[in-house]
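Re: your question from the hallway

Yes, I did run it. Sequences:
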Amino acid sequence: MSSILPIAFDGITYASWLFLISAGLTLIYGVMRILNVAHGSLYALGAYAACSLAGAWLGGGLPAAGSFAMLLLAALLVGSVAGPLIERGLLQWMYGKDEVVLVLITYALFLIMEDVIKLVWGVDSLLLPDPYALPGNFQLGGLTYPVYNVLLIALALATGLALAWALYRTRQGKLLLAVIHDRDMSMAMGINVSRVYLATFAVGATLAALGGAFTAPTIAVTPGIGVEVIVLAFAVVVIGGLGSLGGAALGALLVGLVRSATVRYWPEAELFSIYAVMAMVLIARPKGLFAAQEARKI
Amino acid sequence: MKAAIVAIAPLVALTGLALLSPQWLVFMAMLALAKGVVVLGLLVLMRTGLVSFGQGLYFGIGAYAAALLSHHLHVADAAVMLLAGAAAAGLIAALLGLLLARYRDIFFAMLSLAFSMILYGVLVKSAALGSTDGFNLHARTFFGVALASGVERRVFLIAGAVCAVVVALLVHRLLGGHWGRLATGVRDNELRVAYLGASPYRVVYVNYLIAGAMAGLGGALAALAVGHVDPEMTYWTTSGEFVFIAILGGTQSILAPFVAASIFEALRTIASQYAPNVWQMSLGLAMLAIIMFLPAGLWTLAERRRRSV
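Structure:
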């Protein structure tokens, strides 16, 4: 019994991390019908930018607490620079192509960005341990946990709530929902779909970078960190149903809890368990848990 | 018949290559051949309009089946290994295909990806199979004939060439006939195919099975070439590479996958030698250029020339 608390806490921590990355992916898919492979590169970009910014901040002898603001700033910077650059520079010429071709296009983009990151930041690992150690530790069920994990959970919750509020309670969000529901009709009603796409991609990119920026203090930032993240985020998003924000949250929670229980009782099966959950969900519900039904067209 | 005659040329060329060229070129040609076979299988699947992002699953199964034979059962015959690779992959494809043949579009791609990642997860954690390091294999005989060290790879290249040509001819016949038309029909409008009395499910299932078995054969060939297997063969980036090669060559011709795989391997060898840090970037840029300007692959270049002559 004593192991349930740690399992739940680990699971929720992991789920928060997963949600931060997958929320952007599912948003972009929902609006633009693009399963963005380059999402992993945006995540990596966020992590690298965080290392540079927070590293510079701490290196300048400024108060350590401010490094958290630097993590946020890194995410915003990546989202507002790289996001529009990719959407305006590449993706806007590709709309209307087949979904699978769009996957390939973003795959090409992923390959390009992997090398761009290497060229800019080099191939050595970057470390940014300070923000992780700063908040201290606490005890739970006889085990010691970093307070940073609680911050991560809070961040994911805040992000999820903010997204839901923006999507369902604001005018801009309702315009977005209209575009998701029927792109052509929204266009006819005078919604500037091109601008909606641009905003969506920028927000999605910011979310990916946010996930990366807040992961950076917990890992060694090396080339290739985005590669694993892509398939993990795919799994979460597909489990929840492509394009569903609530689905991404539930998918993240499901994967997080299953993983932490597996790590505890059967550590060899860690990776296996995540994709097994994905396969089982798809077998039971071919379009994910929360996917909208589509009419068959003859 | 015409196709059979055309097929003799590459066979002769590859045999010449196997006998005369330096070891590194033999190695490269084998890898290109192995990937060409996998991609040709992918092409069969793509005829039905489905793209699998998980062919690494069967590539890995084929390679591990061959390697396990040599490593655990001490069967060191290359012919048996190739056969076992294709059979093991075909068997798994026959099982998973029952399920996957019901899926379409992005969901097909994602579920096949999930299955390949499951195998990756299992391989990475199984210490008996060498975890992330994998293990070595060694084939010493071919159809029972003992091979002197040094000539093995040359013999395997010829064997691989024969396999590839036979498989390519079979695929050519299959896609050129009734079955190929049916597959295209499924891609264009599945419901109508069903109304006309054919079973789209069966078409997709059989093509998936063929693609799986061919990926297994390719995996066994690659294992023989490298002499080593590791879980990376089942990772999603490997599967992505296959899709990349398929797009590079285009889906118009049986030869395209082999030409594209050779270009890919040659480029990779050169790039990893001279520009290891921008190798992926050049791949990505090439892919974008092809998707934008040659949507039917490099093969359109050859077609255009033929038409203008």
